[in-house]
Amino acid sequence: MKEWNLSLLSKLIRKNPGVSRADLTAKTNLSPTTVSSLVAELIENGLVREIGVGESAAGRKPILLELIPNGRIGLGISVNHDGILVAPVNLVGQPLVTYTSKVDLADGNAILSQIIEGIENCLKYLEQHELKENLAGAGIGLLGLVEGVKTRYLLGDEWYELDLSPLIERYSNQFDFVIENDVNAMALGETWFGFGEEDRHVLYVYLGYGLGAGLIIDGMLYRGAYGNAGELGHMSITPSGPKCSCGLPGCVGKIADGTHVLMKIKEALENNEPTAMTYDTLTVSHFLQAVEDEDELCLKLLDDMVFDLSRTIVSAVNLLNPSLIILGGLLCPPNSSVSQKLIKTIKENSIEGHRDDFKVVVSNLGANAGVVGSATLVLKTLFELPSYRVVEK
Ligand SMILES: [Zn+2]
Prior knowledge:
This protein is 38% helix and 22% strand. The protein is α/β, with parallel strands linked by helices. The protein folds into 3 domains: 2-67, Arc Repressor Mutant, subunit A; 71-189 and 372-381, ATPase, nucleotide binding domain (Nucleotidyltransferase, domain 5, 2-Layer Sandwich); 195-364, ATPase, nucleotide binding domain (Nucleotidyltransferase, domain 5, 2-Layer Sandwich). The strands form 4 sheets. Strands 6-5-4-7-11 form a 5-stranded mixed β-sheet. It has a 5-stranded mixed β-sheet with strand order 14-13-12-15-16, with helices on both faces. The chain has a 3-stranded antiparallel β-sheet with strand order 1-3-2. The longest helix has 25 residues, at 296-320. The protein is globular, with a radius of gyration of 23 Å. The site of zinc ion (ZN) has 5 residues, from loops.
């Protein structure tokens, strides 16, 4: 019971910086004595601190409380088509330093050694800043179908498997790992540190070199029976489209993600079509710039992509009835033509009577979504209410 109450109080303090002990008593129906002793324990554990006194109409002025941002650190590790990112992330969702590297997803050994290099860099940072003691564990967000300590993913038409056991063994006497699909982790990060904090039904759409979705249903991450929920990229929308690695023709992930757009630009270059893009600038960020510069080819590719993506997202909205859609990923930065066009088209294509029932926003976590989401896998356990625990009297 005490653990439950501790968890409840730390969550309330996280959500309401500057809250007082009296506020906590009112919000929880716990007795003032219980709140005082639990807050004392949180302060002693380095999670909460007093930040001064507040106003009071009469009587003693209340002492205000807040979480200590670096009181606990989660190591966030993100591995997908966009690269490998490792970062220590604090209790308010800020990466303290970020290690980034490009990735060859076909080379499992290279991936493991790059992750280790990232972890070592971050541990060094934590040591230098006397924060290593506060490390609560590591979360890994991996592309593909995550089962236990392994993930399986398709590259072209071939399945690859990545086994994280050597990594987990290497750090077994230092910290534990939590492993999850990368987009699921991002969706979770959004509900803890992004725009999704107040919504219980969230559709998170990730658009980068790949396409995927994470579902928060009734406040919980929805993984499906076998962890496959959110495979938005394999919704087959064009029967005459190219065959996808899953076997179906015209999957949206095959015709409307960053990899596809760059392939189309490469084809255009081979055919000497006019464009500002070159063989040396075949990246998502250069495509985004070319769109802003009104490159004709890139504008046409953007239109095609938005047409296919918006129809797919609207289908998902009709199926799931979310109150919030968050668009994230390298190809969907805030204030870009891609995100603005996508938001407008999703609204235009949705059922008229339901159009105002949901909001569409662009993630404010940006390129940090992967590491923040992965770290959330660890940090959220500090605030989770063990609701299935037998209550001790
Ligand atoms: Zn497919």
